[in-house]
Write a structure and sequence with these properties.
The termini are far apart. This protein has one domain. α3 runs antiparallel to α7. It has 245 residues and is mainly alpha-helical. It is flat, with a radius of gyration of 25 Å. It has a two-stranded antiparallel ribbon with strand order 1-2. The protein contains nine helices and two strands; from the N terminus they run ααααββααααα.
Length: 245
Amino acid sequence: MLFDYFKVPMQFQSRVLTWGIIGAMSMRLVMIVLGVAAIQKFRSVTLLFAGILIFSGYKMINESEEEEDLEDNVIMKLSNKMVKSTTQYDGEKFFTKIDGVKYATPLLMCLICIELSDFVFAVDSIPAVIGVTKDPFIVYSSNLFAIAALRSLYTLVAKAVDDLPYLKPAVALVLGFVGCKMAAEYFHYEVGIGISLGVVGILLGGGIVASVIAKNKAAEKEHQQQEALVAQPIPTAMQYQQQQQ
């Protein structure tokens, strides 16, 4: 969506994605270190993370499916306020000079929007992983693998989200479950990692299976309707005249 909005040429998109991944990895490392340290020093932060996850799950279930206008997007407005920009490209450069004044090209504006968007997503994903394990290495490495996989499988993941309508509610339930787990741990009710992973697997697997079943039923219903239309007798000319009368 961002590439389309900024009209980023295909040959420059890999450059934006590469720098986007480098920025995301660096930002998430800082967030993970600070997040784990905050939980270890201030137990009440656990409740904050739990609240973020539960609210995110609720918002994901109830949010509208309508496509948001990027002109009204908060991230877009913030990016435009942060940097003086131009609509002109200068090859693969992030900055260009116009009449001696330095401007950010649409390439940099797109990169800034990607980084800010990743920060918003990290606010959900990092507490979710911390809710399963407090080991900083596991939290960071899982985020790295997720970013790398999404970079390579973006088209497949995007198509899966469209083709599996119950996957999104399943992810929302996972966020809610992990949030409740973190809240329970704050009150000294421990939930084992094995149980947590089992619940997450069941919820995601259930969402996929339910989506496949619903899709097959819809296809079967459509097929039956088409067969019913084909099976209907074609009226003769006399019957057609009688119907018109």
